[in-house]
Amino acid sequence: MTTTERHPIRSAEAAAKQVSPSTAPKKRKRISTAEKKRRRAGWLMITPSVIHVGLWTLIPVIATFYLSFTDYGIFEAPKWIWFDNYVEMFNDAVFMQSIGNTVWYTFWTVPVSMAVAVVVAVLLNQGLKLQKFYRTAFFLPQVTATVAIAMVWLWIFNPQYGLLNAMLETLGIPGQAWLVDPQWALPAVILVGAWQGIGIKMLIYIAALQNIDESLYEAASLDGASSIRKFFSITVPMLKPATFFVFIISIIGAFQVFDQIYVLTDGGPANATTMMTYEVYRSAFQEFRMGMASAQSVVLFAFLLFVTLISRRVTKEED
Amino acid sequence: MEVKSRMRRTASVAMVALLGLGLAACSAGEADADLNPDEVSGEISLLTPIFEGSPGQDLLEDELLPQFYEEYPNVTVNVDYTTYGNLNEKLTTAVVSGLVPDVMLMGVGWIEAFADKGVLADLGELGLSEADLKESYTDEIVEAGMWDGNVYAVPIMLDTRFGVARMDILKEAGYDSPPSSWEELIEIAEATTVRSSNGSLERAGFDMMSLDARQAFETMLFSAGGELFNDDATAPAFNSEEGVAALGLMADLVNKYEVEDIGFTSTDDIVNPLINGRAAMGIAHNNLWTQAQEADPTVLDNLEPFVIQGDASGMFFGGTLATVANNSKNPQAARALLEFLSSPDAALAANEQRGNVPALTELLDSDYVQSNRFVQFAMENLDVAQREGGPSQWLEVRGDFAPAVQGALLGQKTPQEALDDLAALVQTAIDR
């Protein structure tokens, strides 16, 4: 005897379930009062956040898209000009140079700082002496104002009194005019960017490292794997989700670099270090061209969206 | 000291009173021509880029504003401090939000844009005429506060740039006086440049890198007899023969005569190279004197200012001017503050604090000016000084000058190419 035969009510329910979905009357899932209350409380709790995001993110983003099609010079009402800003922008040699500089800056700062961060994180995860001190030291640049950091780097890069040239001279290498020579200005800025980005990446990697199952390393040790082998065969693959996260935030951060350019070089010499964000700033606050600045912001947004989507695709395929 | 202060205060009150009388006389029938302090009231805001930092704030809040309140007890001033570096951001957000400060201090070259767009009040309507101002200031300075024939700003202080020579170094090289022509400048610069055995520069013969590249170029342009724009400011004129010669000279000084290397000095240097002897000559700001007084007073006797002389006399001036917002709810109170800030007493104190050049001609005789050789020199030569600006788009384009000048100095473009490309950009902005 089956269960349904023994319980007629259940048997009827089972029969009802077998009726094809198209012919069966739709049965509304009953939501308990407690569940309703819970949902209401949930909505209530996220309401401030939704209002905040809507007011300070969504509306400005929509406004930016709208303004990018206008001639808006703050003194007069925006005038619709279709794609004129975009046409002018892509014919502007300085803006095109800023795109190139930004991509170049990102190309170097992201992998370099990620590589250094993962190595530092692994080293600091070994239970070294003064581990906390080192972690704090590496993380300090992240929580220090970029302007303050840039002032220190200004001194380090000073061609006459700077620490860097003094060190090079002791090695018999001639010093450089780091921030005023177009050949060296961008690499100097990249160096600062890479150095400053290590802290937060290191912290994320340390958190991820602590989630890796120790038994994997123990098993590898039993199999006679060397430290390097364990690093490449266990640590690196297990850090993949963290790496993807770090990669995305690093790219976004690198594309949005502004304050160190503002303090260190002002985009110079001869636009050698100007970045997309700096051009947005110049258009908005030096040239009072809010429409153009909006169009440049949209292009920056498109870049970031594109890079993020590509990264996601690549990561998914690899997974 | 107290007596001097009292005398200044008395002079200040007298000046304000005279200005008021003058305004009353020249604009009879205007309801606001004569301010009655008891009737002027309200809360006004002041945006200032010149009283930033502790000494500036102390001066404004502890000395100047109490004097103002003594005269205008019913007026309250809310001060918004900023720097010239952030002034544009402040003004932009103020204009966009519709919360324009009642009184704004801004630079030479800024008036055109804000007056053209109706942000600033026509001071003529508040009873201030061009003729009145020209009695107290030189014509060129008054014109820096005018747009389209109307007065929009009253000058408070000037920032000037001119040549400075270290006479001890020049004398060592056999020269008794600063250069009086471009040819002499090149000759002396070459003679005073010092390089080590490996070729690295130890002393620049002529330093142009310690100040903004745009302002250095403008000083040289003026000394070549060139101008930034044509007479009605509708087209660039800096890519003229004179402009190309000026930029060509700058590029030659670096690349041909090698009297300074790129990066040898910069605007970020804490000590000016003329003070510590790393340069024999250079283009400098008038506050170099104050800097030297603080850093190394022993060099003061060796610092000799000179007007850079080419086909014309090259001296640059910028400065700070006081304006009133067009939409001020308390225009009388705003005007009272403007008049106070530009009065001899307040202007002198502000100039002294920053080591700047008072715009008021009568202050040439003041103790401060007489005790500061560079300020005195600047005031005595204001008749040859020229300013930047011109079209209402000046603020839009001025940021493009430095990269263009740097491009020529670095040899990326010829002076003609650099200036022609810049002129095309500027013309596009003017035509926009």
Structural commentary:
The complex is a heterodimer of chains A (319) and B (432). Chain A is mainly α. Chain A has one domain (84-318): MetI-like (MetI-like fold). Helix content of chain A is 73%, strand content 1%. Chain A is built from 15 helices and 2 strands. Chain A has helices at residues 3-6, 8-18, 33-67, 84-90, 93-124, 131-143, 146-157, 163-170, 182-209, 214-222, 227-238, 240-255, 259-264, 276-286, 290-318; strands at residues 70-71, 79-80. Chain A has a two-stranded antiparallel sheet. Chain A is flat and about 75 Å long. Chain B folds into 2 domains: 2-159 and 318-387, Periplasmic binding protein-like II (D-Maltodextrin-Binding Protein, domain 2); 160-316 and 390-431, 3-Layer(aba) Sandwich (D-Maltodextrin-Binding Protein, domain 2). In chain B, helix 2 runs antiparallel to helix 13, helix 9 packs across helix 10 and helix 17 packs antiparallel against helix 18. In chain B, 45% of the residues lie in helices and 16% in strands. Chain B is α+β, with helices and mostly antiparallel strands and 432 residues long. Chain B has helices at residues 2-26, 53-71, 84-97, 111-116, 130-136, 139-144, 167-172, 182-192, 213-223, 241-255, 288-295, 331-341, 344-354, 367-371, 373-380, 394-397, 401-409, 415-431; strands at residues 42-48, 75-81, 103-107, 146-147, 150-151, 154-166, 194-195, 201-203, 281-285, 303-306, 308-309, 313-314, 316-324, 357-358, 386-387. Chain B starts with a helix and ends with a helix. In chain B, strands 1, 2, 3, 6, 9, 10, 13, 14 and 15 form a 9-stranded mixed beta sheet that branches. A two-stranded antiparallel sheet of chain B has the order 4-5. The longest helix of chain B has 25 residues, at 2-26. Chains A and B meet through helix 14 of A and helix 3, helix 16 and helix 17 of B.
